[in-house]
Amino acid sequence: MDNVFVTVFLFCFSLLPMAYLRYYPFRIIATLRERRILIAGHLIIFVVEFLLVTALFVSGHAPMQGSAFQKLYFVCYWPYFLLLMFTIRPFWFRHFFVLGIQAIYAVFIHTATVLLLKQIWMQMTYFASLYFICYLTLLLLSFPGMIWLLGRLFTREQLMKAQWTASSFWKYLGFVPLLLAFYQGSMGYVDLLQQVQDLSGVHLYMLVSRGILVIIGGILVISVRSGFRQVQYMFHAKERSMKMQEHLREIHDYANTLQEEQQKLAILRHDSRHQLRVLAELIESGHYDEAERHLRALRKEVERR
């Protein structure tokens, strides 16, 4: 028989890696204050859920069965998700996108765990604690791959700049992985397993179909990353083009200013030659006083300029 405390602890602990996985793509913009809020919030949620779920089983309000844990899972992950979504905001649809990818991953790990236990245990029933140990083992073994996949999903520039944050396509793309996970998770394999005598074909179909779902999720993530890189490249190219246009405009303005100054200089040279000619004529004709007055007038004019 399962020990209630051990089983509930394993159940609550199995929620933490997925919570970290949902946080990981947003870590690049999380402030120290937000990280402290998330750490404290996760600890509080873990303790509260552990106590509540334990009390639920000990009091006999719920049986220690897989169906009960499945229902509890859909309730217990929401506090973690809402804490993250309202702490690191306003990336609502991106949070749902990451949640959907995580759900696809969780469905596959759950399916692999169930099939593995059925092959090893050779029974339709097994201890819940054994399931969670196997589930956590497969989860932690495959966790680095998910970290790599989601680690570069977003960049700091994409999350911080307004034009990236307001991308309208997230309203439509954000729920796609979640809908795929819900579709696969609600296909009724449990009822099918109870009705079919030869389960090997069903097991293979379950594993392959949910493996394909994981591949689709991975392609979605890679497509989003590649699309963002392309858009980012185009955006940077546009910025460079605008800067170049501004630089060319400055060069054009400088050339116009230089041309105006050259015209003024040409006029000044022409006036200077004329004034020198007048002075030379006055001096040659012996009108020294008038030449002196003319020089003083020129001096005042130069000083005014």
UniProtKB/TrEMBL annotation:
Listed transmembrane segments: 6-25, 37-60, 72-89, 96-117, 129-151, 172-190, 202-224
Stretches of the chain forming a coiled coil according to its record: 244-271
Keywords per UniProt: Coiled coil, Membrane, Transmembrane, Transmembrane helix
Protein known as: Uncharacterized protein
Organism: Mitsuokella multacida
